[in-house]
Design a protein that fits this description.
By secondary structure, the protein is mainly beta. Helices cover 0% and strands 44% of the residues.
Length: 271
């Protein structure tokens, strides 16, 4: 059994070319009124008045038939997005990538020779990011799952493939900009999943028996059905995936835990 590993501090970091960002500023307008009478006669006491301060805020109620404005933790997206004409290989999913508790629309598609990841938040606005091109179905959207437990889901994408593996990347929404998660070195995260008789690889998000945001597995064949499987624990801090610890265990291919060394699972999300 690949057991829990000791807790270590996290680090921080970012992935890929940014597709563009927009920000919205919210102003709180306060009006104060005051008055005084410098020329009042000495025998007449000047009247005392109290200035009234009025604060203008978003309404909390409306008349019947009007929509009640909502304040969310969502990213301040201001530009509409849509799948362009002529796009192909469309994959669509949903996920709460801005952490406001509402489903956002996630899409990947191919335009000419370029792959794009697109997010449309619940407001109807959004942003997109061009993904690295390796051709065919090796690139595209997998789905969304909350890796670090902060309430905003990260987006998992296929960014390539090998002979018997799929290469996964992680994208996050930050201030309405899609950014690839990186390692501490600055390199975009690319995690292999799958394998052959000689070597295997797997990825698993936070599980009950491991104190980590993410665990990666790398298995190497020793003899008969035995593999040395190294489990590496990672912490996701912002846009940076940092290694915390690792351990190696001998497993047999028939052991239930060996499945973790060959598959991808992030809560309910699988390949």
């Amino acid at each position: 059994m690949i057991g829990p590993l000791p807790h270590a501090p996290r680090a921080s970091h970012v992935w890929l070319r940014r597709a563009g960002a927009a920000a919205v500023a919210l102003a709180l307008i306060t009006a104060t009124a005051c008055s005084s009478d410098d020329a009042a006669p000495p025998t007449t006491e000047a009247p005392t008045t109290t200035a009234e301060v009025t604060t203008t805020a978003a309404p909390t109620s409306t008349t019947e038939g009007e929509e009640v404005p909502t304040t969310t933790a969502g990213a301040p997206c201001t530009e509409p997005v849509a799948v362009p004409d002529g796009a192909s290989a469309l994959t669509a999913r949903t996920g709460d990538v801005d952490g406001d508790g509402r489903d956002d629309a996630l899409r990947s598609f191919l335009v000419d020779d370029a792959w794009f990841l697109q997010v449309e938040v619940a407001s109807g606005y959004g942003t997109e990011l061009e993904l690295p091109t390796s051709g065919g179905p090796a690139v595209g959207l997998v789905g969304a799952a909350d890796v670090d437990g902060d309430g905003a889901e990260e987006i998992w994408v296929r960014v390539g493939s090998g002979a018997s593996t799929v290469i996964l990347g992680i994208v996050r929404l930050e201030a309405c900009t899609l950014e690839r998660v990186t390692l501490e070195s600055g390199q975009p995260v690319e995690l292999p999943v799958g394998g052959s008789v000689g070597a295997t690889a797997g990825v698993e998000c936070r599980s009950e028996d491991v104190d980590a945001d993410l665990t990666t597995f790398a298995g190497f064949h020793r003899a008969d059905t035995r593999y040395d499987v190294t489990a590496t624990q990672w912490a996701l801090d912002g846009g940076v995936l940092s290694e915390r610890s690792s351990s190696t265990t001998e497993l047999r291919a028939e052991d239930p835990d060996f499945t973790r060394a060959t598959t991808f699972t992030c809560h309910d999300l699988t390949l």
